[in-house]
Amino acid sequence: MVDTELQPVAPPWAPSPTAVATPTEQVETAARKKWGVSADAGFQIVPDTLFRCQKLLGLDAIDVVIILNVTLHQWYDDLPYPRPSIIAKRMAVSTRTVERHIESLEKKGFMRRLPSRPKKGKMIRPFDLSGLKSKLERYATVNLERRGHSWGV
Known about the structure:
mainly alpha; two-stranded antiparallel sheet; 7 helices
């Protein structure tokens, strides 16, 4: 008879040793391993290209933090719609500072602030980030080609 008290017990978030982890489970496990319990409060996947090519993209630190705050609110196919005042409070800057940077990001083609529309009884103003995605993909493609990689590898 085996003494179960001496057997190691896997944490509840660890994948079963016999099960094949899905890509989502692999990402969640990697995030949990890297960040510990803080990952349980939520995390987002952000391409390294945003940081590595920040200067080439013409983004300053405030721009990047605003982008991260906007993408924090993006769920599945729904467009994100955080209010500039919420982003400003998180960043400890004025709402006007955030609004000016959003206007600059729009002029540079990184995002578009869409017209207000109702959602669940509130008026929201979503962000379209397709420009950001397009710009990051261009830089990532060049970067991957230089490193000898291709998409999906």
